[in-house]
Input
Amino acid sequence: MNITHPFLDSDGDKLREECGIFGVIGSPEAAAITALGLHALQHRGQEACGIVSWDGHEFFARRGLGHVAQVFADQTILNELPGHMASGHVRYSTTGGQGLRNVQPLHADLARGGFSIAHNGNISNAMHLKQELVDKGAIFQSSSDTEVIIHLIATSRYPTLLDRFVDALRMVEGAYSLICQTPKRMIACRDPLGIRPLVMGKIGDATVFASETVALDVVGAQFVREIEPGEIVEVRQDGRLTSHRPFGKHPPRPCIFEHVYFSRPDSVSGGQSVYEVRRKIGIELAREAPVEADLVVPVPDSGVPAAIGYAQESGIPFGLGIIRSHYVGRTFIQPSDGARHADVKRKHNANRALVEGKRIVLIDDSIVRGTTSMKIVQMMRDAGAAEVHFRVASPPTNNSCFYGVDTPERNKLLAARMDLAEMTKFIVADSLSFVSIDGLYRAVGEKSRNAACPQHCDACFTGDYPTKLTDLADRAAETDQLNLPVGKVA
Ligand code: AMP
Output
């Protein structure tokens, strides 16, 4: 059997990993709170979700393909998830019959009892580790990189679960925020560089963990603090909390794309309001790339805060020149190219009355493949815009993400294939500009990007990957061709 690519699903599709995680311990309504928290994190993954609960004797699980509101549609389903502890996961996964086996939280019976794990991020040496485990006889149930962690814990020789957990994570490279459950406790942890987010809150006596603060707000929890990069927090059933830092101290590298696109604007990340950061990116963009125009139009919803900033700084009026249907999810998070194309039209429509005869500055958060931008520029022209100037609230996306944001292979990224003039022609804009990398760093509160030790993971823009990319290197060695990042790899 060919196991060279253990993370290719049966339909040959690579598993994408865009996820949100949530957990609560110490509440009689643990599953219901988790479902609500996941609902607030739905933007992080819309294809599947799951909840695992513990009632003091047994683990219960419910997973399904679809949105949280569909999978956890009524109280009877939540009644099947009893107990004071629960964790959940939303993900962007592949579709098809096999999809369900990859839906998290994953659960396994280990030597010391049940163990469930919900993972946000991507392990960049998962294939490598999986091959080693399979060679030793491990049998995998899923094609998810997260299952590797379970096998590493299961085969660790340390006596306690926590030691085994740390031992497993020491072998793993890449990005991981995890919420795990054992019969005695909930364990939340963030990788040593803190690439993916994870926050902690309190709701009464119960402790809550979530990918973003918006989920704390929605369940009525008070924000306590972020889980620190490299920190492992254990919370016991009686609420006692212990913090461990077994990985030493590293300069953190939280993902800057969370600010650009991925997080909800009403979340606070790294002490900064995501909305405010986006508005400030718009201000930077207006300073760096001014243009004479009549109307600043955001591509909704992702371009709205930056467009507000651009309008404020430039003095050009802001207007909703594009109206978005709220009955369609994120364009990008769809399984196939075909679905994505159809969705751009279903999702956005020009507001002709506002746009006609005007010189428009269109603002979006990012250009990835260029499909959305091209269609939206055309939409503005069809609605009678006199000129269309495109301004992007992030630098050119040049490189694939290997840490949990679904970007396509490098050869599909517009900015990796074309220079600025070619991109402008491709999207048929009158002009095109991206915010500079330093402009982006200023918007997140830094003076500039520290090239020697960047304050964030910005690999999608710079190619500067903060961890080894073992699987990518292995694959390159196998195929003699590499989807090579342009910058340096740690
Ligand atoms: P594209 O047509 O590929 O250039 O897509 C660009 C659009 O996708 C922008 O409007 C972004 O808001 C959105 N986008 C960018 N990155 C992602 C991502 N990783 N997941 C989902 N949507 C994204």
Observations:
- Residues 261, 299, 302, 330-333, 364-373, 405-407 surround adenosine monophosphate (CB under 6 Å).
- Residues 274-288 form the longest helix (15 residues).
- The chain has 18 helices and 21 strands.
- The chain has a mean pLDDT of 91.
